[in-house]
Amino acid sequence: MDNKMIPFYRPPKLGNEQLAEIFCRFEKALITGQITNGENVREFEERVKELHKVEHVIACSSCTQGLWIVLEALKPETLMVQSFTWQSIKYILPLRPVTFSDIDKETWLMNPRVRTYWDFLPRAVIYTHTFGNMGIATVETEEQKVIYDGAYSLGADLPDIGDATVLSTTATKTVTSGEGGLILTNNTTLAKEIIEIRDRCSRMTELNAILGLAYLEMLNYILARKKEIFNYYMTQLPFKEQKISRWGTTYGYYGCLVPERFGSRDEIVKKLEGRIDTRIRYVPLKSGLPATDEVARQILCLPCYPDVGEREVVDIIREILQ
User: Fold this and answer.
1) 20 CB-near residues (< 8 Å, 6+ apart)
2) Mean per-residue pLDDT for 149-166?
3) 187, 264: one domain
4) Both 94 and 173 in a single domain?
5) Residue 1 reports pLDDT greater than 50
6) Tens digit of each residue's pLDDT (9 = 90 or more) over 268-282
7) pLDDT band at 142 (very low <50, low <70, confident <90, very high)
8) Co-location of 229 and 184 in the same domain
């Protein structure tokens, strides 16, 4: 390998025509002074609405903010989330009693049969599509609300959107707008409440929407390329990967469990430091759940972005195995 570090993620390169369109839209937004929540945001929402065939798409400033907005609109008294998820969600949890769910050892999706305690029946469930792996939440009563954390799921054939599904468009996601989130729902009453809350405190800027529109044009290439890289890792590394559910995945990350015969996961991370950027996803929100603790202890996420070169992937595999 040369001395150039392979980053964990890098958005695809944009062509000259795409860049020209971005600059033209930027200039118009700046000249008109409409730099937030304007025509480009509306276009971004409409494009995603058509893509996912839903009634309403509401853009906001981040996926975490989107989840918070949905909770504020639904106002569930109690909540269940899986412990194996992105850490930022913990900042929206203290407002209500929470029970934590374990994950399935194979798919890393919610396993609601294993919880830390059973003091109450949750009135709402936040079900995470872990790394874009699709699943359907188990509903225990008709009144129980379902919210999907689909941070990596933009462009997927969603098997269910529940009361609402929230997508992310931050830097490492399938389609990036720099920062941002998208709330999907088929409930018109809920959509009106979400828009009202969004407009007060979590608007998406026109600049973010313009960038998102450019990368949305590359969606098919991005999904196909990430799948190709994921499958190559899978054939070349003797590790255990996330099992893809029957509903499919967007291959958000290539995550694998490091076997003991290769040493600890942390030793491999240290060996690659400065040459290959890796990630550890996730630190559990609650310890003591067996599958969550086991996966979190062994998991290693490797670069799986569209523009990572074949030689770079070969180098990553060689560095890990040698």
Assistant:
1) none
2) 97
3) no
4) yes
5) no
6) 999 899 999 999 999
7) confident
8) no
